[in-house]
Amino acid sequence: MKKVRHTAAIVLAVLAVIVVFQNTESVKTELLFATVTMPLALLLFVTLLIGGVCGLIVGHRWAKNGKDAES
């Protein structure tokens, strides 16, 4: 099962990198009170990174709560 997870993670990571590098034009992004111009690739990468970190945090907390409930 771990091998399937690792393979799926690698495939998704490669697909994400392909999508990010195909989008190199600049875009204007509004962040609260500021407007920032940056390459779309950077915006996609940062969004992907934030989503990944949030997923890891939530998954870790769910796993931790599941272990506590079984005890």
Automatic annotation (TrEMBL):
It comes from the Bacteria. Pfam families: LapA_dom. Residues 22-59 form the Lipopolysaccharide assembly protein A domain. The chain crosses the membrane at residues 36-58. Keywords: Cell membrane, Membrane, Transmembrane, Transmembrane helix. The keyword Transmembrane applies. GO terms for cellular component: plasma membrane. This is Lipopolysaccharide assembly protein A domain-containing protein.
